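Co-fold these.
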Amino acid sequence: MPDNKNISADALTKLVSSIFVGTGMSAAHAGKVAEVLVWADLRGAPSHGVQRVPRYVEIIAQGDMNPRPDIKIVKDLPAAIIIDADRGPGQVSMMLAASEATKKARACGIGLALVRRTTHTAALGYYTRLAALEGIAAIAASASWPNMGYHGTAQVGVATNPFSIAVPRGDEPLVLDMATAVVALGKIVHAARSGQSIPLGWALDDDGKPTTDPKKATLPLPLGGPKGSGLSLMIECIASLITDNPILVDTLEGTELANKHRQNAFLIAIDVAAFGLLDDFTTSLERTIKDLKALPRQEDVDEILMPGERGSRELKKRQQTGITIPAATWAEIARVAEKFGVTPD
Amino acid sequence: MPDNKNISADALTKLVSSIFVGTGMSAAHAGKVAEVLVWADLRGAPSHGVQRVPRYVEIIAQGDMNPRPDIKIVKDLPAAIIIDADRGPGQVSMMLAASEATKKARACGIGLALVRRTTHTAALGYYTRLAALEGIAAIAASASWPNMGYHGTAQVGVATNPFSIAVPRGDEPLVLDMATAVVALGKIVHAARSGQSIPLGWALDDDGKPTTDPKKATLPLPLGGPKGSGLSLMIECIASLITDNPILVDTLEGTELANKHRQNAFLIAIDVAAFGLLDDFTTSLERTIKDLKALPRQEDVDEILMPGERGSRELKKRQQTGITIPAATWAEIARVAEKFGVTPD
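Predicted complex below.
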């Protein structure tokens, strides 16, 4: 069994960026894709990190991800736009969504960017954080193909559609980023790759029975039953149906689009400063955080953490120590790199 | 033990409306309060129904709810407003929020109404549904005082802040309405009043131990641990901190406002038709619903239900059969009615 790989964030970003340039992406686009993936690894969320690289390369080869997209704003209303991502990398269209929604919010108080025909949007918290760094309270969600049970179904019905909310807090915004599943699908994949078991209640197996084996876990369960699956469905309605690019139906009906990798998304930006109360917001937020952190804790709890706080700490640590990538994941990345004539560090 | 009371929706609305006129509300405001409370009872959600009447009367007497509010738009941006509810009934300011956010969305694609200094907003799904009946995809949430654990705390830290998303579907919009707790606090209250036990995992007791006794259940748990409490905190940030009316801090710090009943809220409206795709939206939505309902079901499941569907059916049934109110709740309402010289039907 080969060793896990330790690599610096910079070297990993350079490597991943070079791989995507190899697939035909512009250096600018490849850099954004690498930036967001490595950010997730830095924050200790490998489920949304560079373990996705081989899959991205695969969907580019299949034609599902377009490495040379013509990304356009196809609808422009005073406070809302639709971006057509032309099947380009989700990182590129989502960064655009964050900046365009922010512009609209500056002008109107609130702004909406709907994103149609994107591919994997990766860690949503990256984009809401990006907006929050500019003083924006941001709400984002993305819609994908069915990979989770709808409440009561014995087969996949909806997607583990994630959503994220971030609010400004200087250079350390508060960032909530959560799946509508009990856990993000990537965590089950990561457990399978790391040879770990999963807790009961995360997913069912092919027979609709609870399982602790991530390799048998084929039906992830929605968070809180009807709540998680209902929220996931609503995200499909807003991200996919308003933009006239429905995803669930094709997979559920087995049309020719059934196995295509497709996503839609949205990002809502609220300009806190536009209401004239940014200073009060910041003061009240710090006071709220201080009060929550001072509360009596449950017996086995060392510290009360804010949304995204653990990830921010991991990021600072890993910027110093580097990122450790499981041997199996590293082997796959190295294989892909070799294919494009890129030499891993 | 007295019998439960069966009463028609109309008679109940009239009774509740008369009680609130008795407290000093205008007939228009009292009618809105009664309408939303009875709507929840019609839908089989007594936790947000007329069982709240005695409490409303109490907070009016305490001065926390203002029966004669001067509700004003205190900030008006191209796509966003802040409504100051002047501590009036939540039903009145939330109906205003829905109509004003809808107006903004018609003009700008998206609209936001922030509501500060309201009182109990009751069933949020009423207002998102109201907007959805006008072709709007609506997202609403409300922020209240701490009554739920924050992930890891042994005391209340955040509120069971509900949120709701509704999308247009003719005269039967799809309406998701959920608390950020494992269950809405009202359900625990209702179980206590009905003499029922609650499942393990809903709440902890004073000693931080799991309990099935709703009367001992003092610490409701957040949905999915850090997800539910993180989402609740984000709702406080958007609804309360942007509007400069923070709620959590006063209770957590025990200030003079600690025991005041206060809420803030927001409603985001997205005008589906403004994107020119309402027909496609409707077609795709029906197709999505049909596909989900046709999926194989888990063993003990009779039917796959859409968000809000069970409630809509109950409403139709109870419009015919009337609403059955538990004896204890009815006795309290009758006592309050008598106080204001109102004769129950």
